[in-house]
Amino acid sequence: MEIQEGTLLYEPSKTQVEQSNITSYRTWLQEYKHIQTNDYYNLWKWSVEDIDTFWESIWEYFNVQSYQPYQTVRSGNQIMGTTWFPEARINYTEHVFRNKSLNSPAIMHTSENRELQEISWEKLYQDTAALQQTLEKQGIQKGDRVACYAPNIYETVVAFLATASLGAIWSSASPDFGTQSVMDRFQQIEPKAMITVDGYTYNGKKFNRLEVVKELQSALPSLQTTITIPYLDQQANFNDCVNPISWMEATTSHEKLELTYTPVAFNDPIWILYSSGTTGKPKPIVHSQGGILLEHLKALHLHMDLTSGSRFFWFTTTGWMMWNFLIGGLLTGSTIILYDGSPVYPDKQALWRLAEQTKMNVFGTSASYITSSMNENLSPKRDFDLSHLQNISSTGSPLSPEGFAWCYTDVKDDIFVSSASGGTDVCTAFLLGSPTLPVYAGEIQCPGLGAKIESFDADGNALTNEIGELVLTAPFPSMPIYFWNDESGLRMYHSYFDTFPGIWCHGDYIKLTDRNTAVIYGRSDATINRGGIRIGTSEIYRVTDYVAAVEDSLIIDLPKGNGDSITPLFVVVKDGGELTEAIKQDIKQQLRTHCSPRHVPTHIYELKELPQTLNGKKVEIPVKKILMGQDAAEVINKGSLINPDSLDYFIELAKEI
C-alpha cells in the first residue's frame, strides 16, 4: 500500500512524443487548418470549444468517404437529438476494407479449442463478400436486424462486417448468457436473421447450447434464416433452426468476389448494444454508423496510437462493448487479436503467454484481471518476451494505484498504462490515455478529444480536485441516436438527462484534477455517505483487494433514516477459507490506516460468491435494494447475472436485518 494516488510513474521520451499519431495530427492541424496547439490540454480545450471544426477536422484527417458531400457538421445545439453530418452517406465496412492491400494479417485468433491462426486481409474480404451475398439472397437489407449468438471468434467478425456492409443492424450476445437473458435482448429487436454456434468451451469444459438455440428460435417468430457455425462439434445438428445454412456453405465461393457497400445516412444505425439489464429488460442502445466510425477512428488512432501493422488485443466477449471497440481496430489497419475462453486457462499466465506469441503491441483487459495477476504474484516480464508491448489498457472498473505500479514493476517499465472510463452508452471511453502524456498512479491520463467532460456538484456547479458527478456538457457523435422501441425518447431522457436538464449525467463519481487527469470512484448511486462524507466504493475495494485472505468484496450503504447508515461489507475468502476474527480485524485496520475511520464497515459478512453481471461487474444497487426490503424480483433481473443463485444469500439476510 505504499503507492499513493497521483505518484508519477512514467513520462514518455521526446522521441515517443514526436513519433506519436497525435503529434502528427497536431502538425496537420497547424499546417492545413492554421490551428496552433501547445500541448494535449490545449488541443482538448480547442476540441470541445470549437466542436464543429474539431469533428470536421477528424473527418478530413482520416479521409472519411461519403457518397454525397455533407453541408453541415451538425444540426441543433441540444445534446440530446443532435444530428451529425446530416447530408452524408457512408458505409462503415467500406472504411475497414480500405486497408485490404496491407501485407500484415487482418486478424489473429485463438481459443481454448483452436490453435492460433492468422487471417489475411484478402481472406477476410472474400469471406465477408461471400456472406454478404448469402445474406442478400435471404432477403437481408438495410434496416433489418441480424442477431448473433456466438463468441469472440473469427466468424463473428465476418458476420458483423457483412451485416454492416448491407446497412443492416447488428446485435450480439455471448453464448455464456442464459436463455432468458438472450431472449430479453433479441425479442425487443425482432431479428430477421440469426448467426449461431452450437456451444463453446470455457476453462477446459464444453458447454453445448443447441437446446438454448432451439428455445431462442422458437421465441423469435421474426426469424427467416439462420447461419450455423459448428464451433463445439463439427457434426452438430442444427435441424431445429429456421432455414439453417452452414457457415461453410454461406462463405464458400469458387470465384473472386467483390463487396458492394450500401450507402447509409451518417445517423443510421450500425448496431444495438444493451445495458446490463439488472433492473428489468436491458435497454437496447442504438448507435450510428457515422458516429461510431468517427469516434473509433479518433480514439483508436490518436489515443491508442494504433496504425497499420499494430497488433491490438482486448480480452472481451461479444456481449461487452469492448468487442465492438476491438473490431474498430481494423479501421486503422491494425491486426486485431481475438481470444475466446477463460483468461486463466490452462493456467494464470494464459493471456501474458498470448502477448508473447502474438507480439502484441496493445494489451487491453479489465482492471480486475490486472489486480488478479498482481495478487497472484505473477511477473510477466520475467517469464515472457514482451519487447513488442507498448501499451496496457484497462477498463470495466477503476484501476488502483497499486495496479498501475505493478504494470511497471512486473510487466514492462517503458510502456504507457492507460486506464479508461466510458461505457456501453457511447461504445467508447470519455476518459482515456495518450502516449504523449505522463502516467500518474490511479489516474486516467486525459479526457478524450471532443468529449467535454466536467464534474458537477448537486447544484450543477463545476468542480476541480473534488468528487462530483461525471457529466458531458456538449454533444458527442457516438451518443445513442435512440433506444429501440423508445419512440417518445422518454426512456433515453430519463437514463441520462433528468438529473441536470439538458446535460448528460453518466452516473459515475469523478474527480478532475488541476493537472487535467481524472479519478473514477465508482457508480454515484452506489456511493457511501458516512457523516456527510461521500466515499466511492472503489476506495474500499482498493484496500480489500490487497488484504491477503480476501478474494473479492462488496460494500453497501444502508441509510437508517437518522442521517446515519449501516455499511455491511461482504467478503469472499480465498481458496474457500473461513472468515476469521483475525481477517476481520485486518480488513478494518487496513481501511482505517489507508483510508479513514469512516471507511471501516459496520459489519463484515462472509459469503461464497458475489453476484456478478454477465459482463463481470459487481451488483451494488440491486443488493442494496434487496437489503432494504424490496422484492428481489422487482429490483433485479436474475437473467442478467452470471450466478443468479448468489442472490439467495441476500434475500435471506434481508429477512434478518
UniProtKB/TrEMBL annotation:
GO molecular function, one term: acetoacetate-CoA ligase activity
EC number: 6.2.1.16
Positions of the Acetyl-coenzyme A synthetase N-terminal domain: 40-95
SUPFAM superfamilies membership: Acetyl-CoA synthetase-like
AMP-dependent synthetase/ligase domain mapped to chain residues: 105-475
Pfam families: ACAS_N, AMP-binding
The protein's enzyme class: ligase
Keyword DNA-binding: no
PANTHER family named in the record: ACETOACETYL-COA SYNTHETASE
Family as reported in the entry's similarity comment: Belongs to the ATP-dependent AMP-binding enzyme family.
Name of the protein in its database record: Acetoacetate--CoA ligase
Organism from which the protein derives: Oceanobacillus locisalsi
